[in-house]
Amino acid sequence: MRLTCVNENGESALSRPVYIALMTLAAPLAMMTPVQAQEAPAAAEAAPAAPAEAAPAAGQMTQEQIAAFNQAVTDFTAGQQAQQAGDNAAATAKYEAALPAIRTAVQAQPANIDNVNFLANALYADAAAQGAQGQMDKVIALYGESLPHWRKVVEAKPTDAASRNILAGILIQLGNQKLGAKDMTGADPYYKEAVTLARKSVAENAADKTNKNILLSALIGASQTANDEALRKEALDMGKAMMADGTIDAINKPSIEVMSGQKAG
User: Fold this and answer.
1) Does residue 81 contact residue 48 with C-beta atoms inside 8 Å?
2) CB pairs under 8 A, 24+ apart, for 255-264?
3) pLDDT at 263
4) Pairing with 24, which of 54, 129, 172, 185 sits 20 to 30 Å away (CA)?
């Protein structure tokens, strides 16, 4: 991913590459290190700015929006630093300060996939920091807001396994929330979408432990909502095999133990 800075005409000016780390279900955190927003090239700086009182053209941003977006990059970076240092309260404050300007940039330029990716990651990082503080209602709300943005990123970047796995993980968490509220009808589509995404990741790299555990989580969820014995058997067989070879995550192990009768339900 490249984080997008914008010049005075609302045009994109790409900065150095920014990367996110692969999410695991046990520790859902997207780590980004965006660089400080850069000045626009001289040629762009020389272009005449729109009058202050005029509304921006479609796909453009006002000078105020551009300044706010560039400040959001700085705030997001500070939030990452605080989160890495274990200060989740400071991290959420910085993320919440950054999010309005990033949302505005995406609204102004919805086809700019770099900014969409930035918003998806900012929401995801905020959710992780909120979760570390026990604010689970906020986590679910942030996951829900991020969902269409992650879908858009995955659609635009079909070979990006990291983003695909993050999307699958979010879908599983949203499904779990619905299932916990006994809304099986509401949970089922989330799990099914996650299964489809996770199958693709496993097909690409079947030896990857993260890929396998995301698929297993999705199958466990779907087996509880779809009333499909084949899905239940697939989840159980896969879980048993992963318990045997030691690749199962702690988050999935109790469910497989209950399903297999190795642990009282």
Assistant:
1) no
2) 255/220, 256/216, 256/220, 259/220, 259/223, 259/232, 259/235, 260/236
3) 65
4) 185
Q: What 3 state SS string does the chain have?
A: CEEEEECCCCCEEEEEECCCCCCECCECCCCCCCCCCCCCCHHHHCCCCCCCCCCCCCCCCCHHHHHHHHHHHHHHHHHHHHHHCCCHHHHHHHHHHHHHHHHHHHHHCCCCHHHHHHHHHHHHHHHHHHHHCCCHHHHHHHHHHHHHHHHHHHHHCCCCHHHHHHHHHHHHHHHHHHHHCCCHHHHHHHHHHHHHHHHHHHHHCCCCHHHHHHHHHHHHHHHHHCCCHHHHHHHHHHHHHHHHHCCCCCCCHHHHHHHHCCCCC
Q: Cα 151 from chain centroid?
A: 9
Name beta bridge partners: 218: none
What per-residue confidence (pLDDT) applies to 59? Answer: 67
Burial class (CB in 10 A: 0-12, 13-18, 19+), 175: buried
Question: How far is Cα 121 from Cα 126, in angstroms, rounded to an integer?
Answer: 8
pTM comes to 0.79
Contacts of 52 (CB under 8 A, 6+ apart): 63
* 56-57-58-59 Cα dihedral, nearest 10 degrees: -70
Rounded to the nearest angstrom, the gap between the alpha carbon of residue 134 and the centroid of all alpha carbons in its chain is: 19
Listed residue (101, 3, 102, 5) closest to 44, CA to CA = 5
pLDDT in tens, 235-246: 999 999 999 999
Q: For residues 251 and 236, give the distance between their C-alpha atoms in angstroms, rounded to a whole number.
A: 15
Question: 61: pLDDT confidence band, cut at 50, 70 and 90?
Answer: confident
